[in-house]
Amino acid sequence: MDNLNTIEQVTVDNPAAGNWTVEVSGANVPSGPQTYYLTYEFLMDELQMMFPLKDHRFVSGSTYHLKWDSYGGSGTFSLAYRSTVVIG
After folding, report:
1. pTM of the entire structure?
2. Which of 13, 14, 34, 67 could form a disulfide with 50 if both were Cys (CB 3.0 to 4.6 A apart)?
3. What are the residues facing 70 on neighbouring strands?
4. pLDDT, tens digit, for every residue of 40-60?
């Protein structure tokens, strides 16, 4: 961490199970206590579809590109897409 930037990022690869404690301290806060926010994100070793998402409505005759993010392992995977057409 540094004393210059107002945003810091910490990445923990393969975190151990259990309780974690985060300590936030300021190097120079002359006006007293300051509001701050702590955010987090868990990226699981999995494939996540980015498009299409559930209940997306497709337009007949249009071209769409499947989009996904993959986190974790370095192996290969198979991607299959199935559409259920509802007539009525």
Report:
1. 0.45
2. 67
3. 47
4. 887 777 778 888 888 888 888
CB 49 within 8 A of CB 70: no
CB 3 within 8 A of CB 27: yes
Q: Is 70 helix (H, G, I), strand (E, B) or coil?
A: strand
Other C-beta atoms closer than 10 Å to the C-beta of 29 total: 9
Residues 27 and 18: their CA atoms lie apart, in Å, by 29
Digit-by-digit pLDDT tens for the chain (88 residues) are: 677 777 888 888 888 999 999 888 888 888 888 888 888 887 777 778 888 888 888 888 889 888 888 877 677 777 777 777 766 5
Instruction: Dig out the tokens for 26 from the structure.
Output: 């300021």
CA-only gyration radius of the chain, Å: 22
Q: Which residues pair with 47 in a beta bridge?
A: 70
Helices assigned H by DSSP within 22-81:
none
